[in-house]
Amino acid sequence: MSVVVEHLTKRFTAGGTPAVSDVSFHAPSAAITTLLGPSGAGKSTLLRLIAGLELPDSGSVRIEGVDCTHLPVQKRGIGVVFQSYALFKHMTVRQNIAFGLETRKLPRGEVEARVDEMLKLVQLEELGKRYPGQLSGGQRQRVAFARALAIQPKLLLLDEPFGALDSRVRVELREWLQSLHEQTGVTTLLVTHDQEEALEISQHVVVLSDGRVAQAGPPEEIYDRPATPFVASFVGGTSVLRGHVRSGRAEVGTLVVEAPQSAREGETVQAFVRPHDIKIAKPANGSNELTTGRVERLKSVGGYVKVLLKLPSGETVTVEVPRAEFDDLGVVEGDNVHADVRMAKVFLGDFA
Ligand code: ADP
Predict the structure, then answer these.
(1) Pairing between strand 20-27 and 292-301?
(2) What's the gap in Å between 310 CA and the centre of ligand 1?
(3) Residues whose CB is less than 8 angstroms from the CB of residue 224 and which lie 6 or more positions away in sequence, other chains included
(4) Number of continuous H segments (helices) and E segments (strands) in the chain
(5) Please, what is the Cα angle at 225 between 222 and 226, to 5 degrees?
(6) Residue 147 belongs to what H/E stretch?
């Protein structure tokens, strides 16, 4: 394992709530690991602790087997890219990329060769003589990657690197980052609040909530087998329905599923339903709570339509229907439809 974090805790105010609280996780070598969570979850603080930009109250950070907990930033062998480009405005692209190499006192020829290599890697060969102010946001961020990678870091740390860019460029750069990673193979830690970005880009995901690890694992596991209600609702745009435990099973309308362990008869459960795990059909042909829904709102989002359904219980669920399928259905707002919930992840406990 390339990065091993153990029992890391950081408070900014004595006796206050820790920003990072007893966090342990590992990031596999040569993979992209994302630190995923809502704003304030402690992602940036955790990344800064790993970078050495903050010191922990307790716990340890090991990079490639070396205990770095108290090493200064420049001794950790890391490259960092932040959301704000943090390029030197008065230096050209080449000079920005060369900066870290020059502070390491590499011979001139070697610096020039490495800068050429980096410009090629980030596909900006033509723009070496420009200043940051003459580049687009996406190009500036690619220069920031080139500068971070020029020193051949053991670990690349990325703090919301595409957060300041518009959504089209963000999606483009996501793909670009994946191919960059395939070429360099450098172990990468990426901070993001965007679950889609995390699921798409990374091989390992660490979900953070209130300064703690809520779940860590491969993206499929996080998505398909969320460990807590928080992970289930944060990852995947789920709807939550109320159900009850009967004869050892969890009943949510007509849906009967495995009850959580330790469930007692009559207890309330929360069922998390993914937008694509509900199938709708017309016309409604049942009266049970979960098999009938009234279409409250329709919203077209690219290749699919989001259908907001209101159930007789008053609960609402969001369903995603692929465009072509929706056109065949011929559903309009106000219609009653048959709604078949196919799968849900069920947790014990009532609603907060
Ligand atoms: P995230 O990156 O997930 O949005 P942060 O790590 O930035 O979360 O913040 C976690 C918590 O720590 C927040 O409550 C934030 O206000 C607090 N925090 C972060 N940096 C500082 C700081 N330098 N001084 C005081 N509090 C901070």
Answers:
(1) unpaired
(2) 38
(3) none
(4) 9, 20
(5) 65
(6) helix 137-150
Residue count (the chain): 352
Strands (E), 260-301: 268-273, 278-281, 292-301
Structure confidence by residue, pLDDT tens digits, 303-316? 899 999 998 778 88
Would you say the CB of residue 39 lies under 6 angstroms from ligand 1?
yes
Residue 50 near ligand 1, beta carbon < 6 Å: no
Looking at ligand 1, which residue's alpha carbon is closest to its atom 5?
Answer: 42
pLDDT digits (tens, 9 = 90+) for 107-153: 999 999 999 999 999 999 999 999 999 999 999 999 999 999 999 99
Hey, what domains does the chain have and what are their CATH numbers? Answer: 3-233 (3.40.50.300), 237-348 (2.40.50.100)
Is 0.90 exceeded by the ipTM?
yes
Ligand 1 centre distance from Cα of residue 195 (Å): 20
Q: Say which residue the tokens 């049942």 belong to.
A: 286
Q: Is 43 close to ligand 1, i.e. is its CB under 6 Å away?
A: yes
